[in-house]
């Protein structure tokens, strides 16, 4: 049976952190698991690159890769070999030590988060060379905080890459990426906190165990939607690929990189896609558990090696979601990106977290579901009523005195064109004559001086 317990006064089961099965494997089995996690990420990345190019080509009515290997399935491997054989250029103004270290700092943390992701049940479900073991490398009581920590370290690689290149555009791309990742990680942490409140644990295996009866995508739909948006922004993928806006930043933070160092940045991006998809599956989609129709008529669907199949299928579906977004939505502006992160996602995630905490507290106090719905509905109505009264009071206030007219904005004051700041307006553009009038002037129409009234001197000259 799944280890579960009831919290004092609680009506719903909370998962117990039983981590005794971890740390008992022999060293060679731990090494095999570590190699498997690394190989899983690499193979999934190679497949995802080909799959992305195939799917986007299908969406755009193109052929896509079809040369290397059967059906072009070895195209990503050929791209990797080509990048490694390219000339490795180091710009003169770069800080060479940091310049070389930055791709490594960006790539290594992307591989570390998979260590605590469960591919199957935490019990001794499978046998590897005669040893019963869990289908997970390791687990921690604070595994989700570990994932947030290693994901945050990857930001340093991108920022250092932009700074150490000694160029303006990479620096702007690095700063953009830093601001983007920090703002979206706040909303991501709030979405995680809602899961912690329902599961009663930060352990990944315990969170999956707590979804035995119902997945958290049904209990916490707002948290799932917030995390889906934040994971796209966290991985710098379209439509949030601001650090690589080739239209205004040439190439972003990796402009001055080539060969294997550029390939490491690409590898880090795709590994992060796999990692955030695996985290989403673990937190909201039941982890390694079989989907509802299969689990009802097949008792062995969640035992043996089958859970790994369900886990991989769910991850691939989320990777298809990344590809679908890239082939569908255009890139947003940077101000829209930051507005969505700070003014929409963070307030929504914090308010939703407070609502979830209130419901959990009332449930632990043995309140009925109808009473909880009544209290929550009354609180929401009270907030809406207060906001309505505040808007009415603000509308009745006398209008502010007319402010002094600001000085005219000159977009060429610094010698080069700059866009206006909020509150500034561009000067009116001189209007040209209508096209018909210009044609008449050129062709000698009635608006020309020769067609007007002539005096005697002009007549005599004629």
UniProtKB/TrEMBL annotation:
<feature type="transmembrane region" description="Helical">
    <location>
        <begin position="372"/>
        <end position="393"/>
    </location>
</feature>
<dbReference type="GO" id="GO:0048038">
    <property type="term" value="F:quinone binding"/>
</dbReference>
<comment type="similarity">
    <text>Belongs to the complex I subunit 1 family.</text>
</comment>
<keyword id="KW-1278">Translocase</keyword>
<feature type="transmembrane region" description="Helical">
    <location>
        <begin position="27"/>
        <end position="51"/>
    </location>
</feature>
<feature type="transmembrane region" description="Helical">
    <location>
        <begin position="214"/>
        <end position="233"/>
    </location>
</feature>
<keyword id="KW-0560">Oxidoreductase</keyword>
<dbReference type="Pfam" id="PF00146">
    <property type="entry name" value="NADHdh"/>
</dbReference>
<comment type="subunit">
    <text>NDH-1 is composed of 14 different subunits. Subunits NuoA, H, J, K, L, M, N constitute the membrane sector of the complex.</text>
</comment>
<keyword id="KW-1003">Cell membrane</keyword>
<dbReference type="InterPro" id="IPR018086">
    <property type="entry name" value="NADH_UbQ_OxRdtase_su1_CS"/>
</dbReference>
<keyword id="KW-1133">Transmembrane helix</keyword>
<feature type="compositionally biased region" description="Pro residues">
    <location>
        <begin position="417"/>
        <end position="429"/>
    </location>
</feature>
<keyword id="KW-0830">Ubiquinone</keyword>
<feature type="transmembrane region" description="Helical">
    <location>
        <begin position="140"/>
        <end position="163"/>
    </location>
</feature>
<feature type="region of interest" description="Disordered">
    <location>
        <begin position="410"/>
        <end position="462"/>
    </location>
</feature>
<feature type="transmembrane region" description="Helical">
    <location>
        <begin position="270"/>
        <end position="288"/>
    </location>
</feature>
<dbReference type="GO" id="GO:0005886">
    <property type="term" value="C:plasma membrane"/>
</dbReference>
<keyword id="KW-0874">Quinone</keyword>
<keyword id="KW-0472">Membrane</keyword>
<dbReference type="GO" id="GO:0003954">
    <property type="term" value="F:NADH dehydrogenase activity"/>
</dbReference>
<comment type="function">
    <text>NDH-1 shuttles electrons from NADH, via FMN and iron-sulfur (Fe-S) centers, to quinones in the respiratory chain. The immediate electron acceptor for the enzyme in this species is believed to be ubiquinone. Couples the redox reaction to proton translocation (for every two electrons transferred, four hydrogen ions are translocated across the cytoplasmic membrane), and thus conserves the redox energy in a proton gradient. This subunit may bind ubiquinone.</text>
</comment>
<keyword id="KW-0812">Transmembrane</keyword>
<dbReference type="GO" id="GO:0009060">
    <property type="term" value="P:aerobic respiration"/>
</dbReference>
<feature type="transmembrane region" description="Helical">
    <location>
        <begin position="184"/>
        <end position="208"/>
    </location>
</feature>
<protein>
    <recommendedName>
        <fullName>NADH-quinone oxidoreductase subunit H</fullName>
        <ecNumber>7.1.1.-</ecNumber>
    </recommendedName>
</protein>
<feature type="transmembrane region" description="Helical">
    <location>
        <begin position="98"/>
        <end position="120"/>
    </location>
</feature>
<keyword id="KW-0520">NAD</keyword>
<dbReference type="InterPro" id="IPR001694">
    <property type="entry name" value="NADH_UbQ_OxRdtase_su1/FPO"/>
</dbReference>
<dbReference type="GO" id="GO:0016655">
    <property type="term" value="F:oxidoreductase activity, acting on NAD(P)H, quinone or similar compound as acceptor"/>
</dbReference>
<feature type="transmembrane region" description="Helical">
    <location>
        <begin position="340"/>
        <end position="360"/>
    </location>
</feature>
<feature type="transmembrane region" description="Helical">
    <location>
        <begin position="308"/>
        <end position="328"/>
    </location>
</feature>
